[in-house]
Design goal:
Elements lengths: L12 H27 L36 H13 L9 H14 L2 H28 L1 H13 L1 H8 L4 H20 L4 H13 L7 H6 L10 H22 L8 H15 L11 H10 L4 H10 L9 H13 L14 H19 L11 H26 L10 H17 L8 H16 L5 E2 L6 H5 L2 E2 L12 H12 L6 E7 L11 H10 L1 E6 L5 E7 L1 H9 L10
Parallel strand pairs: 1-2
Antiparallel strand pairs: 3-5, 4-5
C-alpha cells in the first residue's frame, strides 16, 4: 500500500500579504526617490538672446539646459578629447579611464554630440545613485533608514552640482554604489552572486583610479560568508579573478597599463594636492606615503566632520548627528534575527571598511569631490544610528505581538530627520552651472577655427580650448625677466615650446581671481599684446578672453633682435 504523500505546509496568509505589501512599499519609495531627484534638475532652453547656441537641436532641451551643451568641469576638455579618440579608434589617454569614456561614446550615438552626451551620462548616473543607496540600506538597515539616506542623497546640492559638470565624478559614485550593493549581496546571498559582484568590482576599478581601492575593501569580507572554509576562500578568488578580467577587458583599447603607472598616479595626486613639486614618473610613491602619514593626525575627525557637514543645515544638533553617525556605523538592533536583541556585524564591518578611505583622503589633502562617493554611506550611518534604539523597542514589542510589523517604529526618527532637512536642502538646490565661461570657450574655439588655418598648437593653459580648437596646448615655462632682452627671450621660449608651422592662437584671460592652473604669464602677455593683432574678444562679467594671432615671421624677428640670453627653456 502506497504511503500517502506528505502534505505541504499551508501558506501563511499574513506572511504572503506582508511580502506583497512590502514589495509595493519598496516600489513606491523607489518611485518617490526618482521624483525627488528628477524634480531637482533644471531642464529647458536658454533665455532668448544667448548667442553661440544656434547649432543646438530643439529636441535637446527636453533633456537638459544650455550648460549641458557646453564643456564645464575639471579636465572637461581632456575627457571630451578622449571620448572622440575612442570613437575614432585613436590612442586613448590612460589618465581618462574607460567607464565614463565608453558610456559617453555610446550615448554620443544617440545625441550625436560628445559634450551633450557626456552630460546625459552624468545625469543618468547621478539619478541611479540614490536608488542603489536605497537597495543597500534596505538590505542592511530596513526601509526607513534606507529611504532617509537615499532621499537626502537625491537632494544633496554637492551631488547635483557634480552631475552638472562634464567629467567622471557621477560615474565613479555610481560604480562605487553598484559594488557596495552587489558586494553586500554576495556576503550573505547565494554563491552565484559572487561573480556578479566581481563584475561590479571590475567596473568600479575601471571608473577611476580611486575606484581601485574598493574591491580590496570588499573582497576580503567574502571570507565572512557562511559555508565551509574552502567555499569562502574560493569566493574571494572568484571575486578578484572576475574583477581583474573585467578590468583588463575595459582596458583592451588602451595602451598597456602597469602597476607602476597606477602608483605614479597616486603619488602625483598626493604630492600635487599637498602643494609640493610634481612627482616624477616611477618615483615619489614613498614620498607620497610619507606625506600622508605626516598629515594623518586628526584626519579621522576631520573626515567625519566633512562627511556630516551637508546635514548641518537643519534643526538637528551637531552632537546628535555625530553620535548617530558612530552608533550607525556599529548599527545594533537594526536587523534582529529570530526576534532577539542582537547585532548584525556584517553591515558594520562593510560600512567601516568603505568609509576608511575618507581618513586617507583627508590626510592626502585630496580635493573634496573625491569624497563624494561616501555621501550615501554617511547619511545611512546617521539614519541607522537614529533608528537603532527604536529597533530595540520593535524587537521587544514583537515578543508580545508576533504580527507587529518589524521596523515600523524606525520611521519616526527617520521622518523627523527628513522633515528637518528636506526644505533646507531644497533651498540650496543649485541652478544650472553659470554658462558664461564655458560659452566663451565655445565661442573662442569657433573663432580659432575661422581665423586660423589648421595647425598644431594653441597657447593657453585652458584644457577646454584645446578640445574646441582641435589643437594641442603648448606647455611653456614662465618667461624670464631679462630687462631689455625680455621680449627676445619670450619670443624664443614661444618658438621653442610651440613647434610647427602656421600662426599661433594665443589666449589671454582677464579675471578678478586666478586659480593655481590659470595664472597668467604677464611678461609673455605683454610681448604678445605689444606686437600682435587681437582677432577676437569675448567680454564677460567674471572673465574676459582675448584671442591674438601670433605669426611666426614676426616672432622669429623678435627672437633674433638681440643676442641670445639665458632664456627659459621649455
Amino acid at each position: 500500500m502506497d504511503a500517502p504523500e506528505p502534505r505541504r505546509a499551508a501558506l501563511d496568509p499574513w506572511r504572503v500579504g506582508g511580502l506583497i505589501v512590502g514589495a509595493l512599499v519598496d516600489l513606491g519609495l523607489l518611485y518617490a526617490l526618482v521624483r525627488l531627484r528628477w524634480d531637482s534638475r533644471w531642464i529647458g532652453p536658454p533665455r532668448e538672446g544667448v548667442e553661440g547656441v544656434e547649432h543646438i537641436p530643439e529636441g535637446w532641451w527636453r533633456w537638459g539646459t544650455l550648460s549641458d551643451a557646453l564643456l564645464y568641469g575639471p579636465d572637461a576638455g581632456n575627457w571630451a578629447a578622449n571620448v572622440e579618440a575612442a570613437l575614432a579608434g585613436r590612442t586613448l589617454d590612460l589618465y581618462r579611464m574607460p567607464v565614463y569614456t565608453y558610456l559617453t561614446a555610446w550615448m554620443t550615438r544617440l545625441f550625436e554630440d560628445v559634450v551633450f552626451a557626456g552630460h546625459m551620462v552624468n545625469h543618468a548616473a547621478s539619478a541611479l545613485v540614490p536608488l542603489l543607496a536605497y537597495l543597500f540600506g534596505r538590505a542592511t538597515s530596513g526601509r526607513a533608514p534606507a529611504f532617509a539616506a537615499a532621499a537626502l542623497t537625491a537632494l544633496t546640492p554637492a551631488l547635483l552640482n557634480s552631475a552638472g559638470l562634464f567629467g567622471v565624478d557621477p560615474s565613479l559614485q555610481l560604480a562605487v554604489m553598484l559594488l557596495v550593493a552587489t558586494g553586500f549581496w554576495a556576503l550573505s546571498g547565494p554563491w552565484w552572486v559572487v561573480p556578479i559582484a566581481g563584475v561590479a568590482a571590475g567596473i568600479c576599478a575601471g571608473a577611476h583610479y580611486l575606484g581601485l581601492l574598493f574591491p580590496f575593501v570588499l573582497g576580503p569580507l567574502l571570507l565572512t560568508r557562511d559555508g565551509r572554509w574552502w567555499s569562502r576562500l574560493l569566493a574571494v578568488v572568484v571575486f578578484f579573478a572576475v574583477g581583474a578580467g573585467v578590468w583588463r577587458l575595459l582596458f583592451l583599447e588602451y595602451p598597456p597599463l602597469a602597476w607602476g603607472d597606477v602608483a605614479h598616479v597616486y603619488a602625483e595626486g598626493v604630492i600635487g594636492s599637498s602643494g609640493k613639486a610634481q612627482a616624477q614618473h616611477g618615483q615619489g610613491l614613498s614620498h607620497a606615503v610619507a606625506l600622508v602619514l605626516a598629515q594623518a593626525g586628526g584626519a579621522l575627525p576631520m573626515a567625519v566632520q566633512r562627511g556630516l557637514s551637508p546635514l548641518a543645515v537643519g534643526a538637528a544638533p551637531w552632537g546628535l548627528l555625530v553620535g548617530a553617525f558612530w552608533l550607525g556605523v556599529i548599527g545594533p538592533w537594526l536587523r534582529p534575527r529570530e526576534g532577539r536583541l542582537g547585532w548584525d556585524w556584517r553591515p558594520a564591518l562593510t560600512l567601516a571598511g568603505l568609509l576608511a578611505p575618507l581618513a586617507a583622503l583627508e590626510a592626502a589633502r585630496a580635493p573634496e569631490r573625491y569624497a563624494f562617493y561616501s555621501i550615501p554611506l554617511v547619511y545611512l550611518c546617521v539614519a541607522r544610528g537614529l533608528a537603532a534604539p527604536f529597533g530595540a523597542i520593535d524587537t521587544l514589542i514583537q515578543r508580545r505581538l508576533p504580527r507587529w510589523p518589524r521596523g515600523v517604529l524606525a520611521w519616526a526618527p527617520c521622518l523627523w530627520l527628513l522633515s528637518g532637512l528636506i526644505a533646507p536642502l531644497q533651498s540650496q538646490r543649485p541652478g544650472p552651472p553659470p554658462p558664461e565661461e564655458p560659452l566663451q570657450d565655445l565661442q573662442v574655439g569657433q573663432a580659432i577655427r575661422e581665423e586660423f588655418a589648421p595647425g598644431d598648437h594653441i597657447v593657453s593653459n585652458n584644457q577646454t580650448l584645446h578640445y574646441y580648437s582641435g589643437r594641442k596646448r603648448c606647455l611653456l615655462q614662465p618667461c624670464a625677466n631679462l630687462g631689455a632682452e625680455t621680449e627676445s627671450a619670450c619670443a624664443r621660449t614661444l618658438l621653442a615650446g610651440c613647434s610647427g608651422r602656421g600662426d599661433l592662437p594665443y589666449i589671454i584671460e582677464e579675471r578678478p581671481q586666478y586659480g593655481f592652473a590659470n595664472k597668467p604669464d604677464e611678461l609673455m602677455d605683454t610681448m604678445v599684446t605689444t606686437h600682435f593683432e587681437r582677432v577676437f574678444r569675448s567680454p564677460g562679467q567674471q572673465r574676459s578672453v582675448s584671442l591674438y594671432k601670433v605669426d611666426r615671421a614676426t616672432l622669429q624677428r623678435l627672437a633674433e633682435q638681440a643676442a641670445p640670453g639665458p632664456a627659459a627653456t621649455p
